[in-house]
Amino acid sequence: MSAQNDGRDRGPTSARAPFFVSVFNPVGRRLAAAGLMGPNALLTIRGRKSGALRTTPVAYVEVDGRRWIIATFGDVNWARNLRAAGQATITIKRRAQPVHAVELSPEEGARFFREVLAPYVKRLPVGRLILAMLGASEILTDPEGAARRRPVFELKR
Question: 71, 103, 106, 155: which could join 79 in a potential S-S bond, CB 3.0 to 4.6 Å?
């Protein structure tokens, strides 16, 4: 076995969002910019290779004054860019704010999924349906496994 695949879990691996995401993102950016896309926000981050600013809709959660974003589809480009940069701009309902991002460890991520996200999703009328449509139901059924595959970042001012 290679060092990259020796059977031990080393955290999130590079991932690609499903095809429909690239089709939906231009519309999603407009809806999120207008404040019309539910629990989502726009993340603007500098590319780790190109240096160009990139903006993408992200899953955003705010509870008790704390804020997080979730890489629902795994360790996708925006998550790798944010990890490298450590800072970004988050835009919520047309209000942009610079933020410092702290990535949660898999243990912290599992606790976040269990204690914060699960109750939050259950309060939303279609929360479980949205997770199912995104292929992320395991966040509720297997928070430990989900946290190993789906990066979570806490946003700080």
Answer: 71
- Paired tokens of 96: 């942009």
Residue-wise pLDDT tens digits, 57-78: 898 999 999 999 999 999 999 9
- CA–CA dist 155, 143 (Å, integer): 20
pLDDT digits (tens, 9 = 90+) for 110-129: 999 999 999 988 888 888 88
Let me know: does 68 contact 61? Beta carbons within 8 Å.
yes
Backbone angles phi, psi at 104, to 5 degrees: -80, 145
CB distance 37 to 57 below 8 Å = yes
Q: Which residues 6+ apart lie within 8 Å of 15 measured at CB?
A: 71, 73, 74, 75, 76, 149
**Alpha-carbon distance values, 60 to 1, 5, 51, 113, 130 (Å):** 38, 32, 24, 13, 13
Please provide the DSSP assignment of 86-106 as one string: -EEEEEETTEEEEEEEEEPPH
Q: What is the DSSP string of 12-69?
A: --B----HHHHHHHHHHHHHHHTT-SSSEEEEEEE-TTT--EEEEEEEEEEETTEEEE
